[in-house]
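Throughout our pipeline, every protein is held as a single compact record rather than as scattered files. Such a record has a labelled line for the sequence and another for the backbone structure tokens. The remainder of this section carries one protein's record, kept here as part of the documentation:
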Amino acid sequence: MSRHPADRPPLLRMSGIDKSFPGVHALKNVSLDLHAGEVLALVGENGAGKSTLIKVLGGAYRPDGGKILLDGRERPMASPTAAQAAGVSIIYQEFNLIPDLTVRENIFLGREHVRCGLVRASEERREAERLFGRVGMAIEPAARCRDLTVAQQQTVEITKALAVRARIIVMDEPTAALTSQEVEHLFAIIHDLKVQGIGVIYISHRLEEVFEVADRVMVLRDGAPVVTCAVRDMSREALIERMVGRPLEAEFPARSATLGPERLRVEGLCRGKAVRNVSFSVRSGEVLGFAGLVGAGRTETMRLLFGADRRDAGRIFVGGTEVHIRSPRDAMRHRICLLSEDRKGEGLVLQHSARENFGLPNLKRFQWGPFIDRRRERRAFGDYIERLRIKVADPEQPAENLSGGNQQKVVLAKWLARHADVILIDEPTRGIDVGAKHEIYQLMNQLASQGKAIIMVSSELPEILGMSDRVIVMHEGRTMGEITDVAHASQEDILAMAIADETGATRQR
């Protein structure tokens, strides 16, 4: 017997959805089915149409053509309120919670339990506790949302969806800021939602998650559907090829490392308990990977090298000469740059144009007396647009309107214009689609071949193993091991060091 009986309509059917914006045909005759108790993964490169399709489902956009049916009956989504009333709940990557309100107040905001003009807080509390029981997580209803972890805030969002009796829950990049343990817990919640007959649409750039959590996968490319099939019938390589529209010879492009002299050496770097006696070196032409669990001290180490935080102790040598880095200005003077893991918050001024972001650390180069030579700045940025293949409609386009991969390229361009020799890249492909990831990897290889020294922090172990010449593993602020034979190392080798004991002994492999 089929899992989804042929005589029973799907929980959700989006049929022939079409949507255009000025100059952009965003969705082209897209159809989608979602069954009760199913997880459908929606994948595609940035700009493929995933967000537009979900906003049509959520009532944020009116489609130009097509229809939406729930249980076989047409149900126009005229507004987000109408979509919510129909049982559709969308959990965006940026949560829709009010930080200063309590968990209970957020869950019942706009739907308060009121009697005689008074909010029945105790009644709401009991209901919140019951809903948390459904997702298997205990969160104090009186806690302020600002005090919750990212995983707890996400659980509150899921609980909000259950409170409005959602039958369809859309999760947009739900694991972007979660630890591996929190991801496992999220998957357990999704399993429970399936058992309760709720349909889940799961959007993620992390393909390993698609194969772990989804029943079926749908690929969009350039606004059009490419394929929909059972996950078990699609290999990772085939899925990538369908997403990007071309075969990738390898997910991680091969590079023959030609190492030169030492570029950077660190001895006994310390800052409180976050970074404890860290020592290492990196050579010209080398990609040095930093691995470890969340909180291991990797990002904190990069910030110390860039002068974003003050170190308590330790020495830094550039080209064999000790240097004193007390600020990012000092680091830039010694040709060290940092691509932060939070490129939107720390790497870019989103409301400014791509050209202005490129020029910010390079203003002296384009200065003419008390003025900035915008023509020279545009010309220089144009060179990097071509070199890095930055997809930007116009250099004056706001940075916030660029895809994640192109935002990362703008950040990289501004530092290359500073002639950086040591490039610190924290989570280089976070939130970037698989095609753009490949381009970032190729750029990293090109920079290394030009003699740059690259230090890469990544939470994705395949990325660490696929791109690094050496790997340093950190645990609770300490370097716990070093892997020199990366070609023959495994993810298990890294994890064994990442959860090592407290002896502080450095292991080599």
